[in-house]
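Assemble and predict.
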Amino acid sequence: MNVLAIQASPRKGGNSEALLEAVLDGVRGAGGGVELVRLADLDIGPCVNCGGCEKDGRCVFDDGMIPLYEKIIAVDRIIFASPIYFYGITAPGKLFVDRTQALWNRQRLESEKGAPWHTDPERKGFLVSVAATRGKRVFEGAVLTMKYAYDAMGLRYGGEFLVRGVDRKGEMEKAADELARAREFGRLCVG
Ligand SMILES: Cc1cc2nc3c(=O)[nH]c(=O)nc-3n(C[C@H](O)[C@H](O)[C@H](O)COP(=O)(O)O)c2cc1C
């Protein structure tokens, strides 16, 4: 089973990266193949609502998002990792999500021609996230965003692994129990 892991934190070596690595250890341990993409290293511009993709389901821009479209369509699992920034995902993460509008339009155009909406129950997307605070609702925005993003990408939302109370670099690595649970979550993602 192939997993596309998407790291949306601009901070290298940070908490969501450590958490994602533990999840991916679990994936690899269960025999899954992993391709890791770091959004902050890619040149991905914003969706400008130009309407181009409404005509053919393809984005008019030629940038770092283009190779990701075919990867999203082909993969069995996506694991998207983002820390919480102002009750939502990070800016690189949101640039990526907004650009999946082209895939939403591709599905819409195909379904208008009679094809079923391609949300495939066998293809699943997950969210991995961390936040500095322990607020009850701190992950709600990110979960909602990713549920709708996965719908646009044609994947069923498979669930989330969330850790509260980690802020400074290195704090995630100290939470051995959480990392062990994250490895188990990774195994289940591909199970
Ligand atoms: C711009 C910015 C906004 C943030 N907003 C929140 C927030 O709304 N709630 C929260 O609990 N933590 C917030 N944080 C803290 C991060 O979620 C926290 O530092 C996290 O561990 C960073 O993960 P990373 O190391 O993977 O980048 C914010 C941090 C930054 C830099």
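DSSP finds seven helices and five strands in the chain.
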